[in-house]
Amino acid sequence: MFFFNRSKKSSYSDFSAVGLDMHSHLIPGVDDGAKDVENSIQLISGLKTLGFAHLITTPHTLQEIHPNTKESLTRGHELLNGKLPEGITLNLSSEYYLDDQFTDQINSNGVMPFKGNRLLIEFSQISRPHNLEESIFELGIKGYQVVLAHPERYLFFHKQFNYYTRLKEMGVELQVNALSLTPHYGKNIKTIAEKLIENDMIDFIGTDIHHVKHLELLKEVPTTKHFARLVDSGLLKNKELM
Ligand SMILES: [Fe+2]
User: Does pTM surpass 0.85?
Assistant: First the structure.
């Protein structure tokens, strides 16, 4: 059994041990992430400096605000052809919000899963979707593996930590946001993220980067003891997506 020494400091100074970032908003002009090609390249170069060699970017597909499709995202992705810094790969997926458009895209084969038929899923941070478990079950029936984006950010789960166990038992993989290991989203979110790591419940770590301010904040993450705990646990599956 892995023993977690609470006083131990991190021996990591960057994200190279993770290698692949699987949650980011790097496609120009399609969501609340990168604004234009120049901004995209700035973010991608910054991620390279942080130690990543592979990126799978996940712009929002969210019917009411960012009603993207495979086609609109692919067009955006193509704008970056031939412009990437050397030594970095950029592949495309999406962060899917559980809504009617997502259901339509599932039914018409219009989604872009990660390797392993995994889909990065999010939903309201204010109230739990009434059909959450049915949706997860349905996706499983259709052969998809659900990866829940930033479980620590759903405030309604905080008082029922056992629900995370329930999700894991349902086969859901959990992706912590790197910045949740810093005070960026607030103390409660940090506490839950740390608890998920201490309980060996995290499968993926992602930057969820939207803008250049995040680059500066991300520098701090590898030096935190929970980042070291997560990487040293051997449980991270980021590299399985390569
Ligand atoms: Fe995101």
Answer: yes
